[in-house]
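Shipment paperwork, digital attachment
Item: protein structure file
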Amino acid sequence: MAGLCEDSNEPPGSFKAKGTLFFQQDNHPIHTANRIQRWFTRRRDVDPVNWPPESPDMNPIQNLWAAVKRILGSNWAEQPPVRTPEKLWDRVLDAWEEVAKNLDLFHNLVDSMPHRMRADVDAGGLWTRY
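Attachment content:
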């Protein structure tokens, strides 16, 4: 996120949203730094979602990113070295597309949300197994 805030007014790659882009973050202290908040203030088309503090267990995207990291890690040694940010982004997108093929993973994550929310309430907003 910090690199995004330094260099550009656009997300990495060529993605452009129409209207307001809703941005979800887990309110980890690095995401709530003054520098990051100033960036959101300048970007009227990006609206951060109000989310409980430090609650990555409520966000199933963490599970998807973990799957992307596993794919990147398992394929890393088999591929030529990455020498540019664009090549790294291509690898991340390839891994993301591989994860996207696993519809069972997406269904399981959606189905887990009531359990995640109950666990979060029961834990008083603290860490849960999710």
